[in-house]
Automatic annotation (TrEMBL):
This is Sigma-70 family RNA polymerase sigma factor. Gene3D superfamilies: 1.10.1740.10, Winged helix-like DNA-binding domain superfamily/Winged helix DNA-binding domain (1.10.10.10). Residues 16-80 form the RNA polymerase sigma-70 region domain. Belongs to the sigma-70 factor family. ECF subfamily. Residues 111-163 form the RNA polymerase sigma factor 70 region 4 type domain. Keywords: Sigma factor, Transcription, Transcription regulation. The keyword Transcription applies. PANTHER family: RNA POLYMERASE ECF-TYPE SIGMA FACTO, RNA POLYMERASE SIGMA FACTOR FECI-RELATED. NCBIfam families: PRK11924.1-1 (NF008889), sigma70-ECF (TIGR02937). It comes from Methylobacillus methanolivorans. Pfam families: Sigma70_r2 (PF04542), Sigma70_r4_2 (PF08281).
Length: 172
């Protein structure tokens, strides 16, 4: 382990020791309870581990707040996705309902897709999902989104590149 890596690990350990309790408390207030605060705080520190130039941060709590807000938004987005899926399931006739195993597999697939698309602009995600999940053509997507086909082509290229990078970087 190089000196730079050792100092980085030392810095992370110091931040964890001094700020973890505070961050969990902050998240508890945002979530109105403790159920997920510990998990989200851990995710925030995992993101810190990957953050470049951590040594340059002068205000750790401000930086932690930004990282934790991202984790919080991701949590809320996943919860909204799951609720939308449950609402759609409730609308289905019973004979088309999914078994617990099928539900678990589908839920995991939705979360993987969500992680792959994390960080993309909303319009790019929308175009990608309309094409890949709904099977719409670029022309149909352009009409629905009120943009040009060339814009949809750019969106699709951006989304596909983003997904490939997510896979390479192991964000799945």
């Amino acid at each position: 382990m190089g000196n730079n890596s050792a100092s980085r690990h030392h810095l992370l350990a110091e931040w964890y020791r001094h700020h973890h309790g505070w961050l969990v408390g902050w998240l508890k207030r945002k979530l109105e309870g403790a159920a997920h605060a510990d998990d989200l705080a851990q995710e925030a520190f995992v993101r810190l581990f990957k953050a470049p130039q951590l040594e340059d941060v002068r205000e750790p709590r401000a930086f932690l707040t930004v990282v934790a807000k991202r984790e919080l938004y991701n949590f809320w987005r996943r919860r909204e996705l799951e609720q939308a899926y449950l609402d759609a399931l409730a609308q289905m006739p019973e004979d088309l309902g999914l078994s617990q195993e099928e539900y678990a597999l589908l839920k995991e697939a939705i979360l993987i897709i969500d992680r792959q698309l994390d960080g993309l602009p909303a319009k790019v995600k929308q175009a990608f999902l309309l094409n890949r999940l709904e099977g719409l053509t670029y022309v149909a997507i352009a009409q629905e989104m009120h943009v040009s086909v060339a814009t949809i082509e750019r969106y699709m290229k951006q989304a596909i590149m983003h997904c490939h990078l997510a896979r390479i970087e192991g964000r799945l």
